[in-house]
Amino acid sequence: MGRLNAFDLFVEHEFLQRALLTGIIMGVVLAMLGIFVVLRGLAMIGDGIAHISFSGIALGLVLGFYPIGTALVFAVIGGLLIHFLSARRIVTSDTAVGIIFTAGFSFGVILVSRTGGFNVDIMGVLFGNIYGIAEPEMRLIVIFGGLLFLTLLVLHKEFLYVTFNDESARVSGLPVGFLNALFISLTAAGIVLAAQLVGVLLVTALLVVPAATSLQFAQSYRSALFLSVAFGVTSVIVGLLASAQYGFASGGSIAFATTVFFGVAVVLKKLYSVVRHA
Amino acid sequence: MPDDEPIVSIRGVSVDQDDHRVLEDIDLDIGRGEFVGIVGPNGGGKTTLIKALLGFLPYTDGRMRLFGTAPNRFHDWPRVAYVPQHVVHVDPRFPATVREIALLGRAGRRGLFRPYRQEDRQAVDDALHEVGVHGLARRRIGSLSGGERQRVFLAKAIAGEPELLILDEPTTGVDPESRGRFYALLDHLNHSHDMTILLISHDTQAIALSTHRLVALNRTIVYDGDPHAFEEEGGYGAAYDLGLHDHRHIGGWGD
């Protein structure tokens, strides 16, 4: 009897199918959010929000609340705090990230240490547990991921406008303050959901890297979104297949796949321009 | 608002920034169909005046009206198009085509959550034709020259069919030939579309050639009148010098 390959495994096991479905949904959502995040230079805010969500999860675990719920609240509040600290010019945006990020993460560490150490599944929180996604979590990700996707679709012209030039957007009558706050909240929600899959330490990969890869090639806004989603989803699928086949950590495989695509894209683009100018 | 009321009405307005008076006692009315150039040195308050008028900055004294409404209560934004300073300096990697950028000029008119319609695409096509960049519609905005980009931003602005067009230093970083074509386009918009235009520039000569009225701003209005007379009367030097004493005597039709 031949060795089972990754495809057979996915057909056979429901937990792998759940992993694939939730991974693809969050891959799509974060890749779309990522285009705006990267163009606005907010990549570090994404990382900050992910770390803040850690303390939200810790608080949920300690108090017995639903950890994704508390993580969501923490991430949105933390993200908005970063946004307002820099928008009001109290500190620059990278400093705001540095402060809120460490405040959130250290509070999480304190909470976890008070509960008698790392008896809860802290590794799962930090590095993700996409194979542990149960039926209710899958439903949550499908519903909220779907809502995020639809919101980004119906507001795509608005988000393009504020990303391109927020002064013009304001004079056009768009509620720029509201759109900025909404964007941070959507990003926070996307990060918290995706962190369930790939962990708070690696979730930025799905947000930033597919978008950065797509921007190596994109000639239009439409193609930027499409390519980013394509790179995000392909990374999730390739990462999961490699993880299932060879027993690699799933979050690490997916995040690493995004960066491999980026590296290949940069090299291909360089080669192409060398060939064209030769 | 009756038709003969000014589109922009500024009375005795002062603006403070960081405990520093940037604009003092500004009086300015702009009527329908006027083409007004605002000139002045850097730090003279040109951009500040526009930002206050658009509600970005608070003003301390006086009264401002945009289409008869105070800027902070104004909601009829499709009537106004604004081309901010430095907008031509696009991030060269920005992933958007000329058409996608020009369509943003219709975003405010369409409104939140609503997708573009056929009439929006038509208005954008017309605007791109009008400024002569329709052949570039599928190109990435960052791959265009400064002069081409500038015309795209003009197309974006007029695609929204505004009544008042405000441009802040639109010709910085643009070659002289493109600059000439650009001013000719503005003149055309002003005449055949009856668009009221407010143009900020440090290029006094270009303003004298295309506008009907020149306003020189250096914390206060130091000249308001015929653009040609401004140069004849000594331009900046004389205006600012005399302006320190009594600016009202310099301009022809200041009040």
The helical percent of chain B reads 25-40%
What percent strand of chain A? under 5%
CATH superfamily of the domain at 8-89 and 164-249 in chain B, by name, is P-loop containing nucleotide triphosphate hydrolases
What is the averaged pLDDT score of chain B? 87
Helix and strand content put the structural class of chain A at: mainly alpha
The main β sheet of chain A shows up as: none
CATH class division of the domain at 8-89 and 164-249 in chain B? Alpha Beta
Shape of chain A: globular
Stretches of chain B where pLDDT is under 50 for at least 5 consecutive residues are 243-255
Mean pLDDT metric of chain A = 91
Number of separate helices of chain B:
9
Major β-sheet annotation of chain B:
6 strands, mixed
- Number of discrete helical segments of chain A: 13
**Radius of gyration of chain A in whole Å, from Cα?**
19 Å
- CATH fold call of the domain at 8-89 and 164-249 in chain B: Rossmann fold
Distance between the termini of chain A: 53 Å
- The 3D shape of chain B can be described as globular
Number of strands of chain B: 9
Helix content of chain A: over 70%
